[in-house]
Write a structure and sequence with these properties.
With 281 residues, this protein is of the alpha/beta class. Helices cover 32% and strands 23% of the residues. The protein contains ten helices and 14 strands. The protein has a six-stranded mixed sheet with strand order 2-1-3-5-6-4. Strands 9-8-7-10-11-14 form a six-stranded parallel sheet. α1 packs across α8, α4 crosses α5 and α4 packs across α8.
Length: 281
């Protein structure tokens, strides 16, 4: 049997942990496969799909392609259709099928950190990642507030209208990031701010962060230790609140991705071993 080929696509893509995670999972599961990363600019997505992506066994998608990739696929599953976002494509039997594992990784990572989705939940951004997480919040009958840049107000408005019509009674709302104030139970960074190489950047002020009980950072970047020896992302390293870094989500959602997950049923400890290793990088 020939070696299967997988990849993750995005732009930029230098920050991704997917090759490390998948390579180790393949090794532990005894699967003959290679996993690489491909930097695909938005204007090149169609060309790359025809000449490279369609020839892979499967691939994962990150910013900024999670929505635009859908137009090239043969089908997407029910959850990806509801969210309008795909982060995994399985090329099998001449059919390209899209899935999203973002909600699984998001919820399981919060659960592992014993962070409950309740109270006032604020999501920074209104793109594909924010959209997926917002649906998970409102499906639990919890109101969600999008905090966005001025240039994204119309996008946030349309997203709120869509969610409200899809999940009756959800009543999502939006505001400018600069207007964000008050106590926040869960703050979710669904923007690329803080992502490599701009790891020192911060999407909100220290004053806003000081009023947060919990923070979930979906941006992938380097970690550093604060004075209490807790690992925190650079962009959220100023306050002693509880924070959950994207690396926790990454392991859980990579395990769930369709091209891979069936090969790991025999060893459920794989995901936990990798989770612990990542914690101490």
């Amino acid at each position: 049997m020939s070696t299967k080929k997988y990849a993750v696509i995005g732009h930029p893509i230098g920050h991704t942990m997917s090759p490390f995670i998948h390579t180790k999972l393949f090794e532990l599961a005894g699967i003959d496969a290679v996993y690489t990363k491909l930097d695909v600019a938005p204007e090149s997505l169609g060309y790359e799909y025809d000449h490279i992506l369609s020839k892979l066994s499967g691939y994962n998608i990150t910013i900024p392609h999670k929505q635009n990739i859908i137009q090239y696929l043969d089908e997407i599953d029910e959850k990806a259709n509801m969210y309008g976002s795909v982060n995994t494509v399985d090329n099998r039997d001449y059919t390209a099928k899209g899935y999203t594992t973002d909600p699984d990784g998001f919820l399981k990572a919060l659960d592992a950190a014993k962070i409950k989705l309740n109270g006032r939940v604020v999501i920074l951004g209104c793109g594909g990642v924010a959209r997926t997480m917002a649906y998970e919040v409102v499906l639990k009958n919890i109101p969600v507030l999008f905090a966005v840049r001025l240039e994204d107000v119309e996008i946030a408005k349309k997203l709120c209208e869509e969610i409200n019509s899809t999940v009756i009674g959800s009543q999502p709302s939006y505001c400018l990031i600069s207007e964000l104030n008050g106590d926040i139970d869960v703050l979710i960074n669904a923007t690329p701010i803080g992502m490599f190489p701009n790891v020192e950047n911060q999407p909100v002020s220290d004053e806003v962060i000081a009023k947060c009980k919990n923070v979930f950072d979906a941006a992938v970047h380097c970690l550093k230790r604060n004075q209490n020896r807790n690992q925190v992302p650079y962009c959220f390293s100023h306050k002693p609140y509880r924070i959950l870094h994207r690396s926790h989500q990454s392991v859980r959602q990579e395990y769930r991705k369709p091209p891979l997950r069936h090969g790991f049923r025999k060893n459920h400890n794989i995901r936990f071993c990798l989770f612990l290793r990542l914690d101490f990088l």
